[in-house]
Amino acid sequence: MELAAAGIGFLLDLWMGDPEEWWHPVRGIGWMVDRLERLLRRCFPKSSAGEMAAGGIMALVVLAATAGAAGGLLGAARRIHPALGFLLMCVMDWQLLAAKSLKTESMKVYDALEEGDVEKARQAVSRIVGRDTRPLSEEGIIKAAVETVAENTSDGVIAPLFYLMVFGPMWGFAYKAVNTMDSMVGYQNERYRYFGRIPARLDDLVNLVPARLAAFFLIGAAWALPGFNGKEAWRIWRRDRRCHKSPNSAQGEAACAGALGVELAGPAWYFGVLEEKPVIGSGGRKAVAEDIARVNRLMTGSAWFGLAAVGLACCILSGQWHI
């Protein structure tokens, strides 16, 4: 049941994405994180221990509320009729996947650059990255868009697909809650260094397996699809997969850098502070706008690899298929 619902949700996401005019559950999770942060900061002392405790309580409440709401809705739908429960599961799975929206938003950067409008491209990339975009050159804008697709291949596609197919929608929504908290409070700056530490560590934990799966699927796609270098994707991934403070973020970036033949990462500005980050990849050429379209093809290919590989593994492990 979970496998079929995840497959249908995957196809719905590739077809429709996330219509902007529709309400999305991530908005509800974000609203809850924001309100709890304000409340807990008032209740706990402004010390490192107090802020860590507040952040931990926030993470626990958001996780419990998100997974509980998903499970409650599914249970109620199934009690009305099993078909309604399955339909709701398909819709929930669709809402948790972001392949189409990731492609749509990153391709807005590509389209602006093709029009020759660098400022429009800068505005478009600011919607999908957490760094300061004002200091970025045209190549910096391109690299930022490519890096976002590379990293979010795991966060927005492979990781939720993994949790949905293996554990079902409750775990999928729990993953999305952790990922949303990390995107909002998981920064190493003065405001969130302690408050966001537990949510950030949770995000590292839940992405340990999916991030590495995403890298393997990206490498597989680079071998299978024309125009990519699978051998170099494997070599750069092996060399540079740990070139990040996070144990997971460089996994997909390294595979994509090798597959595309460009350098990614390096120093970047966050909240007005220049953060020194190592370069990922061996740049044989300058990144160009077409690399945004190419990394999206690679991301889509890896998503299909992930659907097939995780689905097959689940079938074999559950005894439905034998080898």
How do the strands line up in the largest sheet?
1-4
> What are the low-pLDDT stretches, counting only 5+ consecutive residues below 50?
none
Number of domains: 1
State the share of residues found in helices, binned by percent: over 70%
Question: What spatial form do the alpha-carbon principal axes imply?
Answer: globular
Number of strands: 4
- Taking the alpha carbons of the first and last residues, their distance comes to 21 Å
Order of helices and strands: HHHHHHHHHHHHEEEEH
Query: What is the overall pLDDT average?
Result: 90
Give the class from helix and strand content and strand pairing: mainly alpha
Query: Which percent band covers the strand fraction?
Result: under 5%
Gyration radius (Cα, Å) is: 20 Å
Q: Main β-sheet, in a few words?
A: 2 strands, antiparallel
So how many helices? 13
How would you portray this structure in words?
The structure is a single chain. With 323 residues, the protein is mainly alpha-helical. A two-stranded antiparallel sheet has the order 1-4. Strands 2-3 form a two-stranded antiparallel ribbon. The two termini are 21 Å apart. The chain is globular. 72% of the residues lie in helices and 3% in strands.
Draw up the topology in text.
Elements: H1 2-16, H2 25-43, H3 48-80, H4 82-96, H5 99-114, H6 118-126, H7 138-167, H8 169-185, H9 197-206, H10 208-224, H11 230-240, H12 249-260, E1 264-265, E2 268-270, E3 273-275, E4 279-280, H13 290-317
Antiparallel strand pairs: 1-4, 2-3
Helix pairs in contact: 1-4, 1-7, 2-3, 2-8, 3-4, 3-8, 4-8, 5-6, 5-7, 5-13, 6-7, 7-8, 7-10, 7-12, 7-13, 8-9, 10-11, 10-12, 10-13, 11-12
